[in-house]
Structures are given as structure tokens and as C-alpha cells.
Design brief:
The complex is a heterodimer of chains A (about 280) and B (about 280). Chain A is mainly alpha-helical. Helices cover about 75% and strands about 0% of the residues of chain A. Chain B has helices at about 70-75, 105-115, 130-140, 145-155, 160-165, 175-190, 205-220, 235-240, 260-265, 270-275, and strands at about 30-40, 45-55, 60-65, 85-95, 100, 115, 195-200, 225-230, 240-250, 250-260. Classes of the chains: A mainly alpha (about 280), B alpha/beta (about 280). Chains A and B meet through helix 7 and helix 8 of A and helix 2, helix 3 and helix 6 of B.
Amino acid sequence: MRKHGDALLTAAVWLATALVVGAFLWLLGDVVIHGIGKLDAAFLLDAPQNAGRDGGIAPILVSTLLILVVALAVAVPLGLATAVYLSEYAAAQLAKPLRVCLNMLAGVPSIVFGLFGNALFCVALGMGFSIWSGGLTLACMMLPLFIVTTESGLSAVSSEWRRGAAALGLSRAAALWHILLPAAAPAITAGLMLSIGRALAETAALIFTSGYVDRMPESLSDSGRALSVHIYDLSMNVSGGDAAAYGSALVLIVLILAINSVAVNLTERFLQARTTA
Amino acid sequence: MSNDNPTDRNPCSYTLGGIEQGAPCCIPVPHIQVQDLAVSYHGKTVLQGVSLDINKGCITALIGPSGCGKTSFLFSLNRLNDLIPGSRVQGSIRMDGAEVTAPDCDVMALRRKVGMIFQKPNPFPLSIRRNIEMPLREHGVRQRGELDARVERALRDVGLWEEVKDRLDSSALALSGGQQQRLCIARALALEPSILLMDEPCSALDPIASAVVEELIRSLCNRYTVVIVTHNLAQARRVANYAAFFWMTERVGRLIEFGRCQSLFDHPSHDLTAAYIFGTSG
């Protein structure tokens, strides 16, 4: 009986894994098969023509990267500082409700962030539909996720190191810089990857903030169309845009992989390399 | 509480029945003077009315059952209690003429002067060399030559140099437990403290590593003022010149008896001490 139960469990676990991996591979395969034909230098370097059916995605790639850079430049330092505050400085009575708020914010639908970003950045702060507005809105979306993962990484760092550092007369800053942040590097990397993934996949929030003008942006105050918005537009609003949509989706997937590996590399070089564990 | 007059007996001459003689000699000059110390957490008093003089260059063992405030006492000597939310230390601790509990006490400088070793070895996740170098750099030692010399001296002092000199740049976490604890002692010694606080430094180690660390602690006598918390009474007899016995009465830890190690163990003047060290209580 017990033996049967074990076999059943093994089968169930395998089946579930196969389903998940299979679905993912199907999706990936579909995108690769349909998108690979579209992929060439011209597609990456040309401006879109005929509502995106023809031409390339150069301005869209540039807008996407600019929006991401703005979002990361704002979210990473703010998020790190907040996570450090929550795990190292804040009193428990304050940190607890703040953590609950952050977890709730991390679950807020992106369309809500989009409307918030539109009201705050586009209208109230007068930035209009621009890369600034889109990047800052994405930063707002990334922050809760990034803070929560980074903070849990910092909190998981052994308090013996904290006490040890204090007992050696090290300042809090020194303990953070030399020990706590490097030890939390894997969590920080994970938070960064989740944030980047969320940002690059975002569509709803960007339609309201960075807009969908597909021209090459001339400055951060210009409107710019992100890749995800482009894919959405091609597949929903442009008949005959499927091939270009698949090509763009493939580029987006490759972009996420590339940016994530750069992010992993950077955090390893700046943080983890200083530890030997 | 009995406080032996240190002048009435030659501190070098005592032997403890059956057990090897404690670390020889030390000068009965007070280094840390504790007056009416009380420690509380969130208003709950855990230690009260502790007064004693800890002598320079001597090893003083704090003994007593768990929860009687030994570690709280130890932590208040280098203000590590500051890290614990809701903790409050009252009374006076004078160290080299300065008041440790004063709000204007330079805590960083204090902790540099008063090294601390914890129960569980806590080397940082850095290389062996950087474990010692990083705190030195933070305290302003920057010259390559001096750093190297201090690292080597500290490692030699704890008998670790020969074991690790060829792998100074590999991870400290790859060392064995006993080696890690000796590295932690070296890390503290490199800052040239005058006082070392040890919170059950051997209790997480295997017997052989424990014996090595214990021997090391004995070698610190006369060079550093050592205050060591231990649950191992035999160890206290082996290493310490003085012993302080803590006990909990009415849910508050108190110092019951303090005196020379030998007299406290052989002729305890308090019934509680006798019951504890002869194994009928605690």
C-alpha cells in the first residue's frame, strides 16, 4: 500500500512538472518558430512602417531600454535604501505594517499603477506622455517587489554577523557594506530580475504613461512605445501584424534574458565577489 | 557575597584538587569596576545589584545556570546590549577611569578596546585574511605592510598561522569549528584590545577543538583581562583566576558570590554556590 502511494506521488510530481515545462516550451517554441523568420538586422535597425507590419522595431527597442533605465535608476537606489531601513533600522512596530503595505502594493494590478502614473506624472507633474512618465510609473511598480525581496534577503543574513561586526567596533555602514549587502546579494539579484521581468512585460501601465508613438524618441520627454505595447498593438489592432508581433515577442524574450544576465553579472561583481561564501 | 581580599594569599600558589592548576598569577588591580549594575529588557529586570571588580590581566569566569543574567552582564561591558531593542542598563561600569554606561561614551572605541568572542564562531563570509584586515582598515590601519604584519601576529597568537598561512585568501567558512573560533579570537586580538569578553567560547566545539581553544585562553592570562562565561565548571577551574557565581532569585539574576576561583570552588561561602558546584542544584 505504502509502496503504491509512493509511486503515485512520484508519478504526480513528474506529471505536474512535465505539464508546466511542456506548456512553457510550447509557448517558447511557438514564438521562436513564428518569430525567427522575421528576425534580421533590418528588423532591429529599421523604423516601423505601415503601422508596424513592415520595417523594424529600432525606435521601439530604444524607447523600451530608455524606459527601463529610468525605472531602474530610480527604483534600485530607493529600493535598496528602503530595504536596508526596514531590516536594519526600523522598529518592529513600524516595519510590520510597512511590510504588509508593500506586499499589498506588489499585488496591485498594473492598470491601477498606470492610472496612478498618468494622474501623477503625466497630468499633475506635467510630464505628459513621455519616457519619464513611463519609467517613473514602472519604478513605482518595481519598488514594492524589489524592496520585499531585498529586505527578506537582508533579514535572512545571520544576526551573528551583525553582532560580530558591532562587537568589533564597526559602524553600521561598514557592516552593511562589507558583510550584510554582499551576503544578501543573491536575494538582491533575484529582486532585480523579478523587477526587470515585470518592467519589460508591462503593457497596461505604459499605454497610459509613455504612450504608443512609434517614432524614435529624441529625449526622455518624448513619448515612446515599449516592446510589450508594440506587441499588443500589432496583435490586437493591426490586421496582418502577426509576423511582426512574433518577431517582437522573440526579441523581447531575448532582451529579458540578456538584461537579466547583465544584472546577475553586475551584482556578482559588485557585491558577491567580496564574499567568499 | 564574599569578596576575597586579593592580598591575603599568593595567587600563584594555589592548586585545585585533581585538576590542573589555573592560569598562573595576575595582578590584583581593578580594570573594570562594576557598581550596582542592573539590566532590564522592556521593563523586565533580568539582572540586579551586581557589584564587582574585575582585575587586570586576570581571567574571571562567570558561572551559573542558564538565564541568570551572565550574558546580559557580559554584553553590558561592551555596550552590545545597545543592539537589543528595549534593553536598559543602570548602574556604573568604570573601565580605565571612563564610564561605560555614560551616553557620551564612544561605543566604537570602547568595542575596539573590549573584544568579544561569541558562543558560536562567527567568522564573516570573507577570506581568512579579510576577516582580520577589514576591521583593521575600518579602524584606520591602511598600510599594506602593517596590515600584513598584524594579520600574521594575530594568527600566530592564536596558533593558527602554520595551519592557514598557505590559504589566507580562501574562505574562512571552510575552516573547522575550532579554527573558526580561533580566527574570531585572532580577529579581536588584531585590534589590540586590553579586555576580552567570551560568551561560552568552547560550548559549540568538539572536545579536542575545545581543549585547544581553552589552552589558548589560558595563554591570554597576564596579557589581557579576560571575562569568560562558561557552563563547564571544570573549565572554569582550569582557566580562571577568579570566579563569579550568578543565580536567579525572585526571577531576577543576581551575583551570589565572587572570589578567587580556588576558594569559591573549594570553600564556597554561600549555600547556593555550594549546591550548584557540588551538583545538587541548578
